[in-house]
Each structure stands twice: as C-alpha cells, then as structure tokens.
Amino acid sequence: MSEELLTVGKSVAPVYGIEKATGELRFAADINLPNMLWMKIVRSPHAHARIVEVNGAATRQIPGVVAILTHDDVPKVLFGPYQEELYPLDQEVRFVGDSVAAVAAEDWNSAEAAARAIEVKYELLPPVFDAEAAVRPQSPLAVAYMPEGVLARPGGGRPATAIDASSNVLRGDADRPTVLNARGDVATGFLQSDCVVERVFRQSHVGAVSHEPRACVAVYEDGQCTLWCSVQDPYRLQESVAQVLGLPLACVRVVSTNLGGAFGVKVTGRFAVLTALMARQTGRPVKVWFTREEESLDSHNRSALTHYVKVGAKKNGTLTAFEVRTFLDNGFWIGLGENIAQHICTRPMDLYHRCPNVKWEVFVVRTNHPTTGPYRGRADAESHFAIESVLDELAGAIQMDPIEFRLKNRLHEGDDLCSAPGKIMSTVWVEEAARSGAKAIGWERRSPRPCATPGPRKNGIGMALVIHSCGSNPAGTSEAEVVVDREGRLSFFSGTPDQGSEQQTTLRQMVAEILAVGLDDVHGDNADTATCPFDSGPFSSRTVYATGIAASRAAQAAKKQLLEQAALLLQRETSAVALDNGSVSVRAEPWRKMAWGEIAAAAGGSIRGKGIHNAKDDNLFAYGFAAAFAEVEIDVETGEVKILRLVSSHDVGRAINPMILDGQILGGAAQGLGYAMTEGFCFDARTGTALNQWFLDLRTPSILDVPNIEPVVVELGEPTHPFGAKGCSEISYVGVAPAIANAIFNAAGIRLTELPMTPDRVLKALQEAKGIAA
Amino acid sequence: MDDQESHNITLTINGSAHRLDIDSNWTLNDVLRNRLDLTGTKRACDYGGCGSCTVLMDGVDVYSCSILAVEASGKEILTIEGLGTKENLHPLQKSFALSYAAQCGWCTPGMIMSAKALLDRNPKPTEAEVRAALSGVLCRCTGYTSIVNAVLEAASVMRGEP
C-alpha cells in the first residue's frame, strides 16, 4: 500500500497520552462521588457448597455498615443476551472466590471489616476439579443446582439452547463432545501417511492480570440507573442491569471508563449488577473496587486445557490427518465456553486447509475452578501451542524445513472456512509474514538437527505460524456517528471503550483522513450508552477493523452530506465541490467556499453521518496471520531457558498508526512470553484454592524478563477494509509459546508439552530424554 | 473493625501542607486517593507487588500502598500531580505521552515517578540502569521497550541534548 495519506499510516501521538502521563485520566476506580458508599463482596472459601445461612448480626454492629445483600435479597433473574449468567447471587457457590453476599459501608476499611464479619454456614458439596474425570457419568456435578432457563451461548451462529444440567459437559456427555469439527475420514488419512506423531499437551489456567482491578460506581435515582464501570461491553452491561433491575434499557446508562488493561476478560460480570442493586437498595452512590485477589479469581481467566493430538503426514510434506480430543476446564460459568471451543477446533484447521481429514472434538467441562473466558488470543492461544509443536516434530521426522512444511499445507485466498461457514477467505499474507520473519531472525543459521551446540549451554531457533481473528466476527456489530455542528465542530461517536489500545486515536485518524482535517480537529465521545451508538466492544481484535469500517462509513456519509448541501448552497454540481480544511470550496474557484458550520446551520443545525458494520452481511472473511520466531539458549544443567530474541511478524493489511501497532505487537508478545515461561495458576488439588493470586507469584514478566522484541510488519492490504487494515492486538500473543517450545527442541532435542515451560519441567524433559537414550 | 487509634498528622504533598486526622491503619495510598482525591497515584495490589502506586517520599521512590500515613508524617511527598501539568509537562510525562509508552495508563504514574527518582540521582543512565531502576514497577501492556526508550529520551532532553 503505497498511497500517501494525510493522517492514516502516520505515527501520530495517542489521543489519551497526556492525560495518562499526568494522571488526570479518570478510571472507574478514580471516581468518588459525594455521599458515596463502598461495597465489598463476601467471597466463598469453598470451591463448592450450598449456603445454609448468612448471618449479618455481627456485621450490622460495625460502625458505618449500611446494607447487606444476600441471595434472598436479589432478583432471581438470569441475565446476559443468552440468559447464560446465573443469578446475581445464588444459594450455591461454585468456586473459591464466588460471590456469597455484598455489604455496603461508609468507607473502604469499614466495608472490608463488614465483609469479614459476615457469618456464613455452608453445606459442603463434592467439588469437581479434574476436567477429564468430570466428563464421566458417575462424576459429581460442578453445578448441582442449575437454575431453570439457562441457555448455552453457541458458536458459529447457531441458536442458543437450554443447558442439560445432568452432565458436566456443556451440551454433551462422556461420548458426545460439545463441539466437533470433522471433514474427510481420519482413519483413511492415517493409512495414507508415512509418519504419525502423537502427543498430549497441557496448559494451565492463566490470568489476564490487568493492572486496574475491576471497579464500578453506580447511582440509582428516580428509576434511572447510571454506572461508571471498567467493562469492555457497556451495551451488554446496560442490558444486564436493565434485566435484573426490571428497567427499560433507556433508564440504564453505562459509561465504560478508560480501562486499565482488559485483554478481553473485562466482560460484564455479576459485580457490576450487584453494585447497581446496592445503589437501588441504599439510595446512595455505591462504589466497588476489587482487590488483587478478587481480580485474579473472579476474572474470566483463560481455561486450562488438555489436548490429545495425533497428526499424520506424507514424506513429501502433505498433511493427511489431524485427530484431536480437547478437554477444556471451563469453570462453572457457561458464558463463552462453547463459542471458544468452536474456534479452537476450527481455526487451526482453516490455517492448514489443505489437510483433507480432520476430527477434532472439544469437551467443554464445567468444574469448580474459577470462571474462564475470552482472554487475549482467545481460542487460538488455547490451540496453537499443541498444534504448532506437533507440526514442528512432524517436520523433523520427515526431514523437511518447518516453514516449508507449514506453507505447503496452508490456507489460500478464496478458500472456504470451517470456522466461518458460508464465508470465503479474503487475503492471506501468511507466507510473506513467515518469510519476512525468517529473514529477520536469520533462519538460515538454524541447525536442522537438535543439540548442535557443544557444551552445557545450547542454542536453538524455532518458529510457529498463527491464525487469529482480525475483527471480521459475525457475532459483533459496530455503529458509529460523525457529527458536524453549526459551529463547524467535528465529533466522532463510537460505543467502543479504550482499554489501552488507543482505538480513539486510530479510529479518529480514519475519520480525519476521510474529512481531510487534522487529528486534533476530531472531537467526540466513546463508550457512553447515553451519547454513543451501539458497539459490541473491543473483542477479537475487532476495533480497527469492524468499528473502523463503521467509522469510515459514518465519515463518508457526513462527507457526502457536506458536499451535497454545499453544492446546493453554492449552486454547483456536487462533483464541482471538494472538502477544503473545514470548508467546502468550488474546485475551479477555491475562493468560493462555505465553512462547515454554515453548511450545518443551513441543513437544519447539524450534519450527521451514520455508519454500521456487521460481518454477517459480508461474503469475504478476513483473518490476521503471523509468524513467531524465537532464539533461545538453554542450560541443560539447570533447566534455565534464556530468550535471546523474539521476532513477531504480522500480516496487518495496513498500519493505521505504526507506533500504536508496534506497541500492540510488542505488548502482546511480552504477555505471550509470560504464558510460555512463567505464568499460570496453581490450584490446591484438594480445595481448589488458587495458590498464586498475588503479583509476586503470578510471575508476569518484569522489565528484566522481556528482551527487546522485534516487530515485523507486512503491509499488503485487505480489500474488505476502507484503509486495508486488519486488527492486530492479540495475535502476537499466540505464537510465542510454540515458537519457544520449538526453539528449545532445536537447542536440546526435548519436547516440552506443558505450559508454562518452567526450569523444573525442562529438567524433567532432559532427564526423560537421557533415560530413553540410555 | 478493630479499634484504630486516631492521629493528627501533617503531610506535605506536592509542596502543600495538609493537616489530617487519620486512623493508624490508613496507608499513604488511602490518604492520597480517598481523602485528598489525588487519584493519579494508582493501586493494583496493595502489598508492594507491582509498583503502580509509586510516589516519591523525600526524593526516594516508595510504594504508597506499603507506607502507613503516620510514617509519612512530616515528609515531603511528590505525586504525579505535582510533577507537571497538561500545560507544563515534565520531560518524562512528555516522552511517555507522545511515544505510546503509556498504553492503558495504569502503571504509568508509578513508572514515571520511579523514573524521576532514577534521573534525579543519575542523569545519564544506560539502558541496563534504566531497567534495573524500574524493575520494581510492572507493566502488562507495553513489553517495556517503549518505556525504556521514553526514559532515555527524557533523560537526554533534561540534559539539554538536542
């Protein structure tokens, strides 16, 4: 894309940069209102229990305590678009940290003391922690008392259906997976293969660890409820609060304040609904702000998974069969489990589209671990470690270069998609991303055989290919509005919140470009249900793509009206006038012009352009592609793995703001590094308590752990987007773990099959390899 | 709640003296955020695990969540609000703002205050010195490269280099 534009493609400074650097930006937790109460949620110490009694007598004696809400006090309403959220408070608790009750007090310290003083009598129920064992018919149930009417939120555009509560398997049982992706016949495929690799991969629950703990401030006045909240989906929270409080949507206003990190997991939760209920109960503003422990436990972490993988290929590098059985430890939340499972088993099989035989089963299993959800790289971080590791091993077995092996079987433009039935694949620049990344890391230096470095410190290079959503998600809708008022002021309204990706910058760049003004000339508001049109929110890397299309359409509509109105007023053909820096002028006589304000006034007071994007309407489907490369040094005596280099190479279509794009790539890769090497929840096997809820043992990478990651950007365009862009804020996360695992194999000849790849696991793999060699 | 002794303390914050009645268990972070509405200073953990609450106390970078307000009595406290304003940005604020070193912005005030402490004692740090000095503040968004570069850039501006 060589077309030179005014603002798009430039590294302009972020819109919120100065407010962030001065501390002036108000996050939800920074909002303090007069007469405000602090709310604290009482949380279960048990993984599975039924509440017999909640005794608040001692709590009411504490000075400053104003109200207590228990499951008896809240409406028994299922909420969420598919009624998949269970009651705001329930009589059954289903994980350590589940909500039991809520207390409100005059200040934070009193609220904490009040929560501690609540006495709860529990009847313990058998907990379910092992997802594979929980599949069996004789297993206890993780949700013993499933409310009636709960629906599963399906994937692939299928209708929601009722939950069968008699099995822990969501919409399935021991013999019937939740989701199955099948094509061809795998038995035939394995017969045709020359080489088969079988492995079991395990990955633990991992948290997004947003640094801003969730917060919400709610006000209830005269039948109207207003919430300032750290959620990514303000319109869904609006619906949920309206459902539970029994209000029309118009009486609920949600403002998603800027989010201090979200990464997909700050989806509507019970905490915000509870805050609204408490505000109604007390008639006062109420604020809740999670502690770090709450943010770790009640947070929709990435689920733990076990993959049984068997893949076959011919000697010439043709893949013949994929057979995978996946167990996904979903926690009790019904939420998005099935939707995620749908993409786990389909997207990698789209990436390796040339493989004719596939059977991939996913069992989404309810357990009494904390709730899970759509964390950065959703569905693909869940699958790629296993698939990309096995392909590396197969490439070694048939003595083929791992890049060439993958590219031989890859997806092409025009292919049909099993992850988006009925859609046709748009651009696929995966080969260009792989070759550019290979050049950057110096792939030719890689020894084809492992253990080539002498001595106890061994070097290796590895890679992985990645497919991920870039915003072309049929489940999402974005609206946008561009307004020019009678002063000529240009405002852009979008419902999408900013969680750190500075989407207001990139979206306004597109609006500024179309209306031929500078970025500073674009004002407006975002993520306020009272002032902005609907947006599903920043999920699946959809903002630059989907909201970007809506924003561009809105700007084009405003431009059309400005030109038509001005042409009438200037008594010229529309084709004879043009935008001219906040005015419209006659092309041939540029001194004849009208300011936007005059045009808007003449048009009745304002010019309003609306745009909408819903991928359901499109035949062509866009995906993002990437290639991750790692160079490591492994000490075979200590098991320590040093990351020497990480190269993160991306098909981005086109960079709207190269600086922000690089920031997203680097940040995603650094999180992927944590997932690969250090992060992951450890649960007490008996009680289900997370043993590492705090920063010091969550082990997210520090400034001393992250090398300078090298971004590579391939800009070859995407015709379905007005500026050729694809979303790119998650995909760099996905490939890091398999690229490092493959580099470790290249260095030391050991195959790591469990995340995180800690030194003890590396040592264990080395000892096993020695044992086999001996 | 346990009975807490009340104290009358004087905190000097961003050059202004504040007389406050506070309980023994109030942290400096509580006082800044909830009594004085200085919400630029963040909290992400409350036990010294992340550094997002970092402020300067007598010129030293400290975790405000782990300092009791009574300990800070009589000390000079500098928070992000006292470093610079929108109209008059400190070079660190400017370099963080313009170079996308502040992504979500939650760790940014702590990161900038920690960097300020470094540049006060070492105006010409190396990249390794920047990394060592900021290792008490975690960031989840950036991967740190832009932060290191922003600190080096601000240091160079503060030394008057072109």
Topology:
The complex is a heterodimer of chains A (774) and B (162).
Chain A: H1 17-22, E1 37-43, E2 49-55, H2 57-60, E3 65-69, E4 92-93, E5 99-105, H3 108-117, E6 119-124, H4 131-134, E7 151-152, E8 161-162, E9 179-183, H5 186-192, E10 195-203, E11 215-221, E12 224-229, H6 234-245, E13 252-256, H7 270-282, E14 286-289, H8 292-297, E15 304-313, E16 319-329, H9 337-344, H10 347-351, E17 358-365, H11 380-397, H12 402-408, E18 424-425, H13 430-441, E19 457-469, E20 477-485, E21 490-494, H14 503-514, E22 522-526, H15 543-570, E23 577-580, E24 583-586, E25 593-595, H16 596-602, E26 606-614, E27 620-621, E28 623-635, E29 641-651, H17 658-677, H18 695-698, E30 710-714, H19 731-734, H20 736-748, E31 754-755, H21 759-773
Parallel strand pairs in A: 1-14, 10-31, 12-13, 16-17, 18-27, 21-22, 29-30
Antiparallel strand pairs in A: 1-5, 2-4, 2-6, 3-5, 7-8, 9-17, 10-15, 11-12, 11-14, 15-16, 19-28, 20-21, 20-26, 23-24, 24-25, 28-29
Chain B: E1 6-13, E2 16-23, H1 28-35, E3 54-57, E4 60-63, E5 76-78, H2 80-83, H3 91-98, H4 108-121, H5 127-133, H6 145-158
Parallel strand pairs in B: 1-5
Antiparallel strand pairs in B: 1-2, 3-4, 3-5
Helix pairs in contact in B: 3-6
Low-confidence stretches of chain B: none
Just give the CATH class of the largest domain in chain B: Alpha Beta
CATH architecture of the domain at 128-198 and 306-425 in chain A: 2-Layer Sandwich
- Continuous helix count of chain A: 21
Largest sheet of chain A: 7 strands, mixed
Q: Biggest sheet of chain B: strands, sense, closure? A: 5 strands, mixed
Please give the alpha-carbon distance between the first and last residues of chain A.
Answer: 57 Å
